[in-house]
Amino acid sequence: MILTRIRPIALIVLASAAFEIGIGAETSAGTAATPPPGDRHPPINQVYPPEAFYHNGKGGRILDVTKPPFNAKGDGVTDDTKALCAAMRFVRDHYEQVHGKDYAYCDYKQHHNFVVYLPDGEYLVSDTVSQGWPALAMNIIKGWSHVEPVQVNSPDHETGLDAERTKPGQQPMVYAEVNWGVRVIGQSRDKTVIRLKNGASGFGKGAEKAVMTFFLLRRGSNVNVGNFFENITIDTGKDNPGAIGLSWNASNHGSLRNVTIRSGDGAGRAGLMMDRRNALGYFRDLAVDGFDVGIELTAMSETDIVLEYATLSRQRVSAIRVGGGTLHPHGGACLSVRKIATSGEGPALSVGLGGQAVVLDSRLTAVSDGEPAFVVESGGHLLARDIQLSGYRTAVVNAGKAVPAVSFIDEYVSAEAVRLHGEAEKPLRLPIKDSPLVLPERDLTQWADVDAFGAAGDGVTDDTAAIQRAMNSGKPVICFPKGAYLINGTVDIPATVREVTWMFGSVYRSASNPRGLFRLAEASRQPLYLHRAVTAGGVFLDHEADRPVILEDVLEYFHHVRSSARGPDMLFPSAADQNADLWEVYRNTRPKGAAKEVFVNNCLFFGGTDREGTCTVENVRAWARMIDNEHLPKAQFGFRRSDVWIFGFKAENGNTLFDVSEGSRLDVLGGTFLDWSAHQGPVIASRNSSVSILCLLWNWHCLAKTIVTDENNGSVTTLPAARFRKLEKTDSGVVFIR
Q1: Rounded Cα distance, 484 and 510, in Å
Q2: How far apart are CA 664 and CA 640, in angstroms?
Q3: Can you tell me whether residue 398 is helix, strand or coil?
Q4: E strand spans, 65-159
Q5: Is the pLDDT of residue 489 over 90?
Q6: pLDDT, tens digit (0-9, with 9 covering 90-100), for 277-314
Q7: What is the pLDDT of residues 490-541, one digit of tens each?
Q8: What secondary structure does DSSP assign to 418-487, as a single string?
Q9: How many CB atoms lie within 10 A of CB 714?
Q10: Are strands 690-698 and 732-737 parallel, antiparallel or unpaired?
Q11: Domains with residue ranges and CATH for the chain
């Protein structure tokens, strides 16, 4: 039986709101306290202090494409293709990959972490903007700890290299493309435009050629960590029917934010294409106008995209397509979207083989009769909730079976959930709160550069005292312009600070310290925004005082490769401390009293647990959008006495995925969990708590014997793997419990 609750009611149209900083009001199903569906188009003007720029020679990492050695013009007349490619190539030329025996496959040094910055201007291009050939890749022919680089000169060369190794069980020569840390940030979305020349060579019908791409190799990558694209408009021009606006991928974390992708004449293959492994990240405030398909997600493998506040218009085939990829049919493609507005021909969303989609609080409009709003093909899965429909003759077609048109869908699922406590139990639908949107400070006099207060930023000198002086300066924005900062004490963050940005640089410990690198020390009703850091050696933030906190784009370094940072200049200039139970991004150090509020966006290692459970997050109200934990010794995510709403996650290689206890409520809407060896489970352990979870498990052949163990008031419910649905023609399946 398919669960559906659909009702014919009038279409609700809401007025949009403009805001600088805000905490979204909580919403439960059917209410409308947040902005309406669609791109909010926030008025971002991203500026940086002079010391942050590479060309100023003070150790900064912001690469202004209009400065030497790139010299883009941005005048809308000069062809800037070579200049933009040179800036992206500069990033790759400065990668410092870790080589040698017993180094982990996915390690790379954290000395630089550059940002390609496009000031306002129109950058005219005639060809694909990329890091350029020859591409750099790696192979694991000699094993995961004996990684070797390989140069790939062209697509044909890649095919030839792989053809040399065709025997069963052999690893391919080209295993993963080296394309990590490609961060392309514009100054402002409306005034920073990359525009393809009209009728550009190679972009004709059937070409499927990108205006900008983050990858080149067919094989894709699973080490492409931290790729970002923000505050930019891509215009594919006119008479380019084979154009793709942007081809993008990333592993573990990445983002597209405040982006427009448009076709000058409505033609083009796709606005946003993600068809190579892996595609994983948190997207928000996106507009795609024109094209056959607005967004296509077929990367499969370790793929999970979270998208909020997007407008897709004038699509001719489908607004969004997810699943159906063929490169890695053992995995799947997960998509969680909320607050989207679509208007075009064809379905708003098509879910193909190996695809899993969650759609919430959205408005879908058909411009021609005859198409369904949703299409779910065999081997796909859909949950749609609180959806406004207009103009469709059919609401859903699921494996050829149609659900009649309605104007509002309370909830539709393409396959029934497994019930923990009987059919009469209502679904757990925790209130949703928007992550506060903090716009960049335009007045640079309000920024405190930690170097100006004595920080060395060399990753060797202990900068604790200097950073504390910057925090105490009274300035609302604190920035870290260099690539590496060492903190062996604890820095208190006062209530005067609104935002701390590391601009993708690293901050870590070399000496053991039970306290966090940073401590939220003073109470405030204003949220504290901490973002864009690479960190290791202990706890990143101790949440002590009562104040909402936003953690965004924080890469806590991987637990399973921490030994690769045990010595100086391995991953960081100094050795990272090895003695902490876990390197974790967050800890509530005062769990008594009212629950702390925390928003976690696009971060690694929030809520992970050690073997003793001492790292379990306690007494929080958390809203997490695209989080990643992997290879942890106990549960990948653990919560005690907490309400946690998770919108998209990725996890790997663990006996237990979620462990919740002591009255916690956990609501998970989309995600992917990979194991490559057999485990006993349980995948989900709940003790006197409530859970509602929808996620994709892949490598189904080595699935844990027990998926769920639920202990509630002395009663124990155990759910084996046989209770759950394996997706057709893939080595993956859906866990959907209530």
Answers
A1: 12
A2: 6
A3: strand
A4: 75-79, 115-118, 121-125, 135-139, 148-152
A5: yes
A6: 889 999 999 999 999 999 999 997 789 999 999 999 99
A7: 999 999 999 999 999 999 999 999 999 999 999 999 999 999 999 999 999 9
A8: BPSS-TTPPPP---B-PPP--PPP--GGGEEEGGGGT---EEEEE-HHHHHHHHTT--SEEE--SSEEE-
A9: 6
A10: antiparallel
A11: 40-291 (no CATH), 442-475+480-606 (2.160.20.10)
Q: Which amino acid is at 430?
A: L
- Of the chain, the end-to-end C-alpha distance in Å amounts to 15
For 562, residues 6+ apart whose C-beta sits below 8 A from its C-beta are 536, 576, 578, 583
Q: For residue 713, what pLDDT is reported?
A: 85
The C-alpha atoms of residue 300 and residue 355 are separated, in whole angstroms, by 8
Identify the pLDDT of residue 22. Answer: 41
Dihedral of the CA atoms 648, 651, 654, 659 (nearest 10)?
-30
Q: With CA atoms as reference, report the closest residue to 89 among 124, 132, 60.
A: 132
| Burial tier of 345 (Cβ tally within 10 Å: 0-12, 13-18, 19+) | middle
Q: Closest Cα partner for 376 from 346, 399, 402, 392? A: 399
Q: Give the residue among 474, 467, 489, 488 at the shortest CA–CA distance from 522.
A: 474
For the segment 186-204, what is each residue's pLDDT rounded down to a tens digit?
999 999 999 999 999 999 9
User: Does pTM top 0.90 for this prediction?
Assistant: yes
Sort strands 477-479 and 499-508 into parallel, antiparallel or unpaired.
parallel
pLDDT tens-digit readout, 427-451: 789 999 999 999 999 999 999 999 9
The residue type at 431: P
Enumerate helices (H) and strands (E) in the chain, giving the number of each: 3, 51
Residue 333 φ/ψ region, left for φ over 0, alpha for ψ in the -120 to 50 degree band, beta for the rest: beta
